[in-house]
Design a protein that fits this description.
single chain, 302 residues, alpha/beta, five-stranded parallel β-sheet, three-stranded mixed β-sheet
């Protein structure tokens, strides 16, 4: 909040010689899009609009009303619109962090997290979040913008940063669980071969921005594990450029000591557990991070 008027406007004034809200005006409408979602598109998601005064707010709002069939919401100021955007993603981040922490607790208690969430979900107002990796260019990033702003005005956020620490540590936790499971099956860790299924930050989209699957890949490499990534959605050249990862075109059967189902692409969901297990050696571990398989089909679930 404040990015438009505190950061952008002074630059515009300095470079143009014009005066804000006298010679020029500003409007702001936060992005609302859900990559990979075929139902909630730009035009079918209600749009928040704002302007530097009432007249400009109406100009911005009328512009968006021409294409947004879901309607618009005029915020009372640009800062309010900016704040609304940043808390939409921060709220999701904190909620997922809570579920991730619960998963850590339930795993230690040998309780199936998904079974717990299904039971709790029978209450009408229970929020249906699931544990997992939190990446992307919004949810895993926007909380840092808000905490930076809060710290700049003398407030140290507690819950937001705690949630970020939990979510940022999930890749390391996943690998620690996988390594323990492999050791229990007497699979030698160093020099083993692991297939990571999915590299995009979420299912059914090619978006690689801030994907936290790379945390799993990098953590495995610290154990001197050979890691293959398979993702039919992503651009191989982009993955190589952004992360130094060259996804395999197709995994070979019988090659892997472990398989991690990291992203629930429909192609993976449609595969049977037997088909995924066929990619492994006679002795292997199958880790389902996304509950894409039934509870008894995998060796590990988050």
């Amino acid at each position: 909040p404040g990015a438009t008027e505190e950061d952008c406007v002074p630059v515009l004034e300095c470079m143009s010689g014009l005066k804000y809200n006298k010679d020029f005006y500003c409007g702001y409408s936060p992005e609302r899009i859900n990559p990979g979602d075929k139902e909630h598109r730009v035009t079918t998601i209600k749009k928040v609009t704002s302007g530097s005064n009432a007249d400009i707010t109406e100009v911005v709002d009328s512009l968006y009303r021409e294409i947004i069939s879901a309607g618009t919401h005029k915020a009372s100021s640009i800062r309010v619109a900016e704040a609304a955007k940043v808390i939409e993603n921060t709220q999701r981040d904190v909620n997922i962090a809570l579920i991730n922490e619960l998963a850590l607790i339930f795993n230690k208690m040998d309780i199936d997290t998904e079974a717990v969430l299904e039971a709790a979900g029978t209450k009408w107002n229970f929020l249906p979040f699931r544990p997992g990796l939190v990446g992307g260019h919004c949810i895993g990033v926007d909380p840092y913008y808000l905490t930076h702003k809060a710290q700049s005005i003398g407030y140290h956020p507690e819950i937001i940063l705690a949630g970020r620490r939990i979510n940022d540590g999930m890749g390391q936790y996943v690998v620690s669980q996988l390594v323990k499971a492999m050791m229990k099956k007497r699979i030698h860790i160093e020099g083993s071969r692991v297939l990571v299924m999915g590299l995009a930050f979420k299912e059914n989209c090619p978006d690689l921005r801030n994907t936290r699957v790379v945390d799993i890949v990098n953590e495995l490499k610290d154990y001197n594990v050979t890691v293959d990534c398979y993702d039919p959605w992503v651009n191989r050249e982009e993955a190589q450029y952004e992360y130094g990862i060259a996804p395999v075109e197709a995994p070979k059967a019988g090659e892997y000591d472990a398989m991690i189902l990291a992203v629930a692409h429909q192609q993976f969901v449609d595969m049977s557990a037997d088909a995924i297990r066929a990619l492994g050696k006679d002795t292997h571990v199958l880790y389902d991070l996304k509950y894409a398989l039934s509870a008894d089909a995998s060796d590990l679930r988050l």
